[in-house]
Amino acid sequence: MTLLDRFRTQPQNNPDPAVRLAHLAELPLTEREQIAAAAREDSDPRVRKAAVGKLLDPHTLAGIAHDDTDASVREAALTMLRDVALDAFEGIDEPGSLAAVDVLDDMRTLAQVAKTSLRESVARRALERVEQMSGTGGQIASIARQAELEPIRQAAFARLSSREEFLGLALHCDFKDTALAAVERLSDHDDLEQVADRAKNKSASKRARQILREREEETARAAAEDAQFAKEAAADAERAAREHAAHAEAELRVAAETEAAQDAKAREEAEAHSAAERHARDESERQQRDAAARAAEEATAREAERRRVNEEAEARTRRDALNRMNQLIGRVDALMQKEELSLKAADRALRDLRTALADIPPLPSRQDFEHVSTTLKLAQEALAPRVRDLREVAEWQRWANVGIQEQLCEKMEALRNEPDVDAIARRIHELQQQWRLAADVPRPQGELLWRRFKAAHDELWARCEAHFAGQAIARSENLLKKTQLCERVEALSSSSNWVQTAEEIKSLQAQWKAIGPVTRGQEKAIWERFRAACDKFFTRRQEDLAKRKVMWAENFAKKEALCVKAETLAESTDWEAVAAEIRRLQAEWKTIGAVKKSRSEAIWQRFRAACDKFFARYASRHDIARGERVAARETIVSELEGLAPPESDTAGAPSAQEAPADLAATVRGLRTRWHQELAARGVDRDRAAALDRRYADACRHIIQRWPAAFAGTDLDPEANRKRMESIVKRVEDLAASLKGPADQPELSPTERLANMLKEALAANTIGGKADTESRRRAAQEDVRQAQASWSRVGPVPEEVRRELADRFQRAVRQISGH
Q1: Angle at alpha carbon of residue 623, lines to 621 and 627, rounded to 5°
Q2: What is the 3-state secondary structure (H, E, C) of 630-687?
Q3: Fewer CB atoms inside 10 Å of the end CB: C or N, the chain?
Q4: Which of 56, 51, 106 is nearest to 73 (CA)?
Q5: Which of 584, 595, 591 is nearest to 560 (CA)?
Q6: What's the distance, Cα to Cα, between the start and end of the chain in Å?
Q7: pLDDT tens digits along 505-531
């Protein structure tokens, strides 16, 4: 180590775990102390776990597996201990494996070592360790069932004692010797039947069926012997009964000879007793024969059922075996059809073919056996050359990889002149990947090339480490900046000032993009934190926008309804009521909330146009009303003029002198409408006078043209003249009645003075003055009625009308002057 290296931060002490991991990956296995120190002392579990993966010392691994605080590191240490015990790495000798077994204290791992180790001493040591631990009967049975080495299986089997363990071995063990030994230790009939039906090992199943068959045959023999014994016992009993009967008969005969006087009743009882005994003997013999026959039939039936079940199981086993063989053949055929066949797959298929040919199981028929055997041999013959070719190709590939590794060494050495450290690091990783792809080379050349490649790599990597340290500091600073941005966005995520906050968050997002990468391993977490805060705000804004869209739609519908109402009322002439209603609509418009901005101006202009249209008409309502009145009078006059066109237009027509149908009724209707329009007023004086003249001319022209059509109606000129004269006469009489003595020039001055005194005396009396006043009011009322009647009088000739009108107005003025 140079003086400069002493002051430089060592990679194993770098605060960035990524730098320490990269340094650890480059350490050779010979740096045991540094690897062990990293495995025990590094603060980051990932670094410790990576160091454990390169550690081969059993005692150090045992300490880490027992004491490390991280479960994944402990698990990795336990896995390494297992691999060391199983000799999974090059250079691990038998003492090293035994040492690993001695320090292992996990029962499952020890059982796995005992089952899979190919070193008998290691497997036996693992079995002893398992046996030393309490409650491990199940693990020993598992070792007896699955151990690769036969001595280990036998040693584990010798340690078993329970029926359940032997039954489990007989059912599930793949090894013939262990399965058969377990079957021999079974004595229960149900256990043997279960093994015969379900055992994975065919030899165990076959042996269990054989034991069952022997036991059933022995049971049948015992039943037959029992039946024979019962038959012989019955014969002996019958013979003894006959002998006893003969002896009794002899005794009776002797007694009969000696005691002749024995009465007949005793003899009858003796004979009845003898008959009962014979019947009992016969019944016993019959029952014994029936029992023996039933036992023989049951034994025969059981034997037939057992044979049927065995035959079905055997047939099923043979069918399953045929299916397995066909599957193997199909799998090999599919493999042979592949253009790109790997050596590993081909070698495994060839090994399966050889194993199948070495031990072809029983098949359903001889033809099946011959077909399967022939097909397997043909497949083996076809596959074997391809495997040889693939092996040759693999061998040539290993030699070709030597040239590739030399090129990779040259490329690695050429990187010494590269100034860009990042490019060096990327290129180193690429070359390492290429090296792994070409790693399979002959051992002598491989060792030399690897040292060359490793030396160039170590030299270049030293340059990269300092660069990575600077990057780690920059990444830490970037992480701090992004953390601050996260905090700012999180503070803004609950804001409801949507527009301003959205702009601020977009600005922060732009800042985020400008910041460089952060510390390795923190990228996902910091990004998810930032994105979650942004998503929270924009999700809330979207939800609020959705609610506002609904509200905008409702407000737009309300405002559109107001527009329709305003447009409907805009053409109305009911000025005051409609003005009040439109003002109410305007007030209601102000209470309705906002609508979507893109539609707000259009709907407002529509409503405003309708309101402005009405109020423009409202401002000129008098002109409109005047125009309507003028138009109405113009219409009436035009209709009247249309009833009697000028004579020049109708000259020469054959029916020009004939009055139109219903002429009087038509004119009367137009006259009624005319008077209604006169009552409505609203027309300026000059225009009204012009229309009055046109109306009078039209009426006069019609009446003069067809006077007969109006005879007897209120439009008859003669009748109207008389009515007008009557009205004038009545008004003149009224005016004369109101005249005083001074107003009567035909009287002499003395008579006028006398009349004036009378009136003065009458006025000075009680009620006199009141009577005069009432007469004047009555006269004025009569004048009004006369004026109304005058206005209703139809047309008369102009000369007559003018004369009578002058008289009428003069009389009215006289009455008004009193």
Answers
A1: 115
A2: HHHHHHHHHHHHHHCCCHHHHCCCCCCCCCCCCHHHHHHHHHHHHHHHHHHCCCCHHH
A3: N
A4: 51
A5: 595
A6: 148
A7: 899 989 999 988 888 788 889 899 889
